[in-house]
Model the fold of this input.
Amino acid sequence: MADPASSPGGSGAGGETPPVDVVSLTVNGRAIEAPKGTMLVDAAKAAGIEIPIFCYEPRLGAPIGACRMCLVEVEGMRGLQTACSTPVAPDMVVSTESELAKDAQDGVLELLLANHPLDCPVCDKGGECPLQDRTFRFGPGQTRTVEPKLHFPKPLDLSPLVALDRERCIACYRCVRFSQEVAEDGQLTFQERGDHVEIATFSGDPYEGRFTGNTIDLCPVGALTSNPYRFVSRPWDIKNTPSVCAGCSVGCNLEATERDNEVKRLTGRPEPNFAVEEGWICDRGRWGYPALRSDERITGPVLVDAVGRRTVLLDRAVNEAAGMLGRRELRVAVLLGEPITVEAGFLATEFATRAGNGEAMVRRMGIPGHGLDPLRALPGAQMDDLDRADAIVVLGGDPCAQQPVAELRLRKALRRGARVAMAGPRPTALDPSCQVTRTTPGHLQDALPIVAELIGAAERPIVMWDEADLAAEPDAAAALAALIEDHPATRAIELACDVSGPGLRALGVATAEDMLAALEAGEVDVLLTIQADPTTGPEGARWSRAIDGVPRIIEMSTYRSGVTDRADLVLPLLTALEDEGVLVSMTGRAQRLRPAARECADAASAWELLIALTHRLGRPVPDRTPAQAFSRLAAEHAAFAGLDYGELGTTGAVIAQGRGAGAGGPAARRNPAGDGLLVIPCRPVFGDATAHRSDALASVVEPTRVGLAPAEAERLGVRTEARVRITTPHGEAVLPLEVDSRLHEGAAYLFTGDPHAGAAALLPMDGGPVRAAVGVAQREQVEA
Amino acid sequence: MTVAELEEHLAPIRHEYADPRSLILPALRYVQGEAGWLPPHAMAAVAEATGFSQAYVESVATFYDRLYIDEVGRYCINVCVTLSCMLRGSDELFEHIADYLGLDGEGTTADGMFTLARVQCIGACDRAPCLQVDSGVQLGPLEPADATCLIDDLRAEPAPARYDR
Amino acid sequence: MPELNCVYRHREFGDHLTSLADYERAGGYLGLKETLALSPDDALYAFHRSGLRGRGGAGFPMGRKASFLPKDTGKPTYVVCNADESEPGTFKDREIIEHNPFQLIEGMTIASYAVGCERAYIYIRGEYEAQAQVLDAAIAEAREAGRLGPDALGPGRPFDITVYRGAGAYICGEETALLESLEGKRGQPRLKPPFPAVAGLYGCPTLINNVETLASLPPIMHRGPDWYAAMGNEKSPGTKLFSVSGHVLNPGNFEVVLGETTLRELIYDMAGGLRPGREVKAVWPGGSSVPVIGADSLDVALDYEALNGVGTFLGSGGCIVMDDSGCIVRASWRLAQFYRHESCGKCTPCREGTGWLANILGRMVHGEGRGEEDIRLLESLFGRIEGRTLCPLADGAVMPIQSALDLFRDEFIRVAHEGSSRPVPMTEAPVG
Ligand SMILES: Cc1cc2nc3c(=O)[nH]c(=O)nc-3n(C[C@H](O)[C@H](O)[C@H](O)COP(=O)(O)O)c2cc1C
Ligand code: SF4
Ligand code: FES
Done:
C-alpha cells in the first residue's frame, strides 16, 4: 500500500509553496481579488471579464505589449494601460468598458484590419479565428480605409507542414517568440520593419524542427496554417475532443478534430495541462494521425480456418475467438503491447481467469526492470516541477528524441538559470546549451559523481532517468537510488520507454521473458496478442520461431504485424484516438482518452472485445464501460486507490507510486560476450512506427539506421557505404548508415522504429547489453 | 570572407561586450564593407562567428536601412528627402540625379555603378539639400550641377578596396 | 542675444579641438579633475544642483535620472551616450563630435565616475561614419594618454569607451530601442517599466544621455553647478544648442542661454532670416516630432516652459522653419512618410497608423482627397494612435500633423479638395 504522502503531486520537488498575497481591486465596478503579481488581464479573466488580447501569451515569456489590444483605463494612471503587462495593485480601479477603453479596442482592431485581406471565407482559420471573434465582439462595424492594402507574395510553404500567408499576419510575435524563446530553434524571425515586417526564415529556407506546429496553434489569425489540414474542413463541420497523445510516455494532452468520422487534425489544448505538456506538442504527435488511414491498417476481422482465409463480421469473429479459447484444458497466454489502456489491461487479467484453464498468463512487452524497483520507489515529480527545480540531471536516454516535449521544459529551466546536466552515451539536442557528460557505452555509473554534485548543491533537484538504460545497468540503478535517497529533496522522473508500461506495471502485469520461454517449451495452446508484435521487438527472431510452434493464435491489432499472417483470427482494434480509457504517463498521471472519431467501422476497442469475450465464455465481467472497469480496478489496485474516472476530468490525476512488477532482466552488471561494438539502442519518436505510417510526416521521419563515429566507420571500412549489415546474437539486419562525429567510437547506435526494418529485433529480450558486428552489406542483401 | 577572417576581426573587440550578440552588428558592417552587401553566405559567416542562428542574423540585418541583403551598386547615392531638405529642393535634386543616371526613380544603374535611394534625414539639414555617398561625409548644399560633377568623379575613380557602408 | 560657447567650446578656439593637447590647452579635463576630488555621491549631487536637463528630447533632469541607478546590485553599471541624432532638423550633436569630441569623452568619464561605470558606449547612427571615425581617433588618443584605460579614474580604476555604430534606423534613438540595438537585436523598443536605470544594457543599471547632455558636464563640474544653474531660468538653466534649418538664409547650430533668446531672434538674428519678401509660416522648434507653431508664436522665449506655453516642445532643439511659400499639407505628408518609414513595426497603432496617415495625406496632396471626410478621418485617427503605442515615436508622428491641421485647417480643407502643386524650392545657397 503506497503512502499517499509520497505520491508525486504537482507541486512536489521539495519546495513548499509560499503563501500568496492577495490583492483586492475593482474591475468594471466589481470587486475582485487576485494573487499579487498577476497581470490585470489574467485577474479579470479569472473573474469572468474578458479583456481582448493578441500578443499576450505567458508561456512565451514576459509580456511584450506589442499589439495594444488589451488597453484599459486605470484610475490615477495617465492614458491607457496594457492589461497584459500591468500587474494588479491594491485598490486599483480598472475599466475595460469605459468609452476610452472601448475606443481603444475598436481603434486597434480597425488598424489591425487596415492591411488585413479579410479573406475569411477562404481561410482555414475562419470560424475559429481570434481576430474574427474579437472583431465581432469588440471591433468596428466596418472599415473606413479606402487605401490599397499592402500586398505580399501569396501563401508559401514555410515547410511541408506549415503554410504562411503573410498578408494575414498581424505581427503579434507569437510564432517568432515560440521559435526563438521556447523551442530555441532560432529559425523563425521577423524581417524588415514598420508595416513591411514579415515572418521569415533564413533566405527562405524551410522551417525545420520538431515543434513547428505549435506556431499554428499560437497564431491568432490565419497566417500560419497546417498544410495537411489545408482546406480540409470548416469550423462548423467539425467536432473537437480533448484527448491524450499515445506517441510517447509523456502523455501530452491534445485536442482532436473530427469530421466525417475521421481525425482531421490534432492540436495542443486551448487550455493546456501545465502539469504535462503546457500546451506544446511535438510535430510527430501533431501529424501522426494520417497513420490511422495508412494501408497497414486492419480494416476487418479475418478468420483463417479449413475453408481458407476470409473476412468475417465482427460478431462472428468474437464468437470464433470464444470458441478457440473456451475449452477448459487450454493453456492461454495474453501478450499486451502498446498502447493499452489500464482498463484493457485490467480486463485482460479478468479475462485470464475465465479463458481456457482459468490461469492464462498475462504479460506485457516492454523493458524488464528488475533493478529499477528502488528508483521507482523514490518520490516522483510532475513535468511542471521542472519549472521550479534549481538543478536537473538527465541520466541516460535522450528525452529530446524519445520524450520530445520534455526538451522544451528543460530549455525553460535553462533560461531560468537552473543547472541542467545531460549524462549518457547519446548526443542530444540540448548538448550545446547544458553541462554534458558523455559516458562510455555501458558505464552510466561514471556519471554518478556529476549527479551527486548537482543534486548535492541544489535545493530542489530533479533526476530524470531513462528506463531502458538503467534497466540494462542495474548496478548504476542501485547506486543512483541510494544517491537520491541521501538527498531527500530530490525528486525523480522516469523517462519511460513505452506508453503502456507505467499503467500496466501499476496493475502488476509483468514483462514477457517467461512467456517466451513458455511458448518455446510448448506450454501454450492459444496465444492472444493485443497491440503486440513481438516478432519485430527484442529477440524478434526467437519470438517468431516460438510463435510458429503455438497451435492457435488470435491477434487483436490496429495495424498488420508480424503476427497477422500467422494468426487464425485477427480482430481489428481502434487506435488511441478512437478509443476510450485511461493511459498512465511516465510521471504517473492517469489521463483519459476520449474517442474523437471512429474511422474503421469494423474495428473495436480492446476493452470492448475483452468484455464481450467474457460474456461468450459464460463468465461475464460486470463492467460495460471503461468507467465501470476503472472503478473496479481502482478498488483492487492500490496504485489507483481513491481515483474516480469522472473526476480525472481533462487533466488527469496522479496515481500512487508503487513498486514495479518488474521481475526479470539482468540482476547484475553483465559484460556481453564477443568483441563487436556495444549496441546503444535509440528510440526516436520521430522514427517510430506511426511516423513511418503517416504520410504527413514524410519530410521529417527519422530513418531506422545504424549510427557510427567517423573513426569507427573508417576502421570497419564502411565509411562510404549507404547501408551496412549489423549482426547480433539475436539476428541480422541491413540498415542505412549514418556517420556522425558526435557518436562514440566502440559503439553501434541502433536507431529503431520502423517495424519492417528489423532493427529492434536485434536487441536482447531482457534489455541487457549486447554486441554487434557491423560490416559491408552485400549487394543482394540490399536488394532483398 | 571566411569565418576565420571574421573571427580574427572580431577577436580584439569581443571583450568589450558582455554578450556576443552585440558583435552581430559590427560583424555585419564589416562583412558588408568587404562584399558591398550581405549575400547569404556572408550572413551565415556572421551567424557562425557570433553563435546565433542565420535567420536571426538576417532578421537583424533587415531591420536597418543601411544593411543591404540585396546586391547594390558600387556606390550608393543616398539623397535625403526629409522636410528640411525637401524645403530646399531635394525632390528636384533626386530627380535630376535619376535622370542623369538614366534611372526611373530609385534603383541600380545597368552598369552596376550606382544605386540611387531616397533616404530619411541624415543629420545635415544645414547643408540641405544634401546627400551621402554610402556613409561618407554629408555633402551639401548641392545644386544639380554639383551632383552631376560628383557622379562623374565617382565614375572615374578606381573600384574601392573596401566599401564605406 | 548672448551666445555662450559652453558646449561648443571649440568655437572659441578656431573651431577645432580635435587633438587632446588642444583640448587640454582650452581648459579640457579640468571638470574631471574637480569631479575626481568629490565622492561619486557628491558628483551626482552636483549634477542635480546644476539643474541640467536631458538634451535628447524629453528634458528629464539629468541628475535625477542618474540617481535612479541602484547601487550594489552585484552587476556592472553602464553609461550609454545617445549619439543617434536622427530627429529630422537636428544636427547639433554632430558638431560636438566633429569639432569637440574630447568634451564628450570627458563628460562621459565624469558621469561614469559618478555612477560607477567601467565601460561606456557611444551609440552613433550608422550615417555618421565620418563622425564615428573622429570619435575613434579621439578615444585612441585619450587611451594613449591614459585618460581612458586601466587607470583612467585614478590608479587601478579603469574606464573605457566603445563606439558602437548603428546602421540606419531612427527608432534606435529611443533609449530602449537603442539598448536592444546595442545588444545586437532588432532595434525595437522595450516595454517599460523596467526603466533602463534599473534594467538597461544586458539587464544592468544603465544611464543613457544625449551627447549634448554629457558634453555639458565638463563646464558644469569645472565652473561649478551653481554657476551653471545661474544661467537661464530656474526650471530651464544652462545653455542649449539649436539647429536651425529649412527656409532660413543661414542654417546652422547656435548655442543660447535658455530663456534669454526668442525664437524670432534665433531665426532672424542668428540664422540669417528669410528670403526677402518671405514671412515665417510654420516652425517646428524642437525637431519634427513636436507640434508645429505659427508666425504668431515667434516671440516665445526659448526654454522648456515657454515653448510648452505656446503648445509645443523644446524637444531636441532641431528648429525647422518654413516660409509662406510652403504648403503645410505637403510638409505634413513628408513627415508622415518619415514616420511610416521609421516605425519599427512592433506595435499596432504605429505600424498601421503611420502608414494610413501618410496615405491619406498623400492622396490629398495629389488631388485625390475626399474633402471634409478625409479631414474627419485624419482627426479620428490621431486619437487612435496617440497615447496608445508602446513608445513615443507614434506620438511624435501625430503631434506635428495634428497641430498643423489645427493651425491651418482651411489650407487642409482646400488641399483635401484641390490637391497641392509642388512649390518652387528655396534655391538660394545658405550664406557663410
Ligand atoms: C522615437 C524617438 C527617437 C529619439 N531619438 C533620439 C536621438 O536621436 N538622440 C537622443 O539623444 N535622444 C533621442 N530620443 C530620446 C531618448 O529616448 C532618451 O530620452 C534620451 O536619449 C535621454 O537622454 P537625455 O536625458 O540626455 O535627453 C528619442 C526618443 C524617441 C521616442
Ligand atoms: S510606437 Fe512605433 S516605433 Fe514605437 S514601438 Fe510602436 S511601432 Fe515601434
Ligand atoms: S495583449 Fe497586451 S499588448 Fe498585446
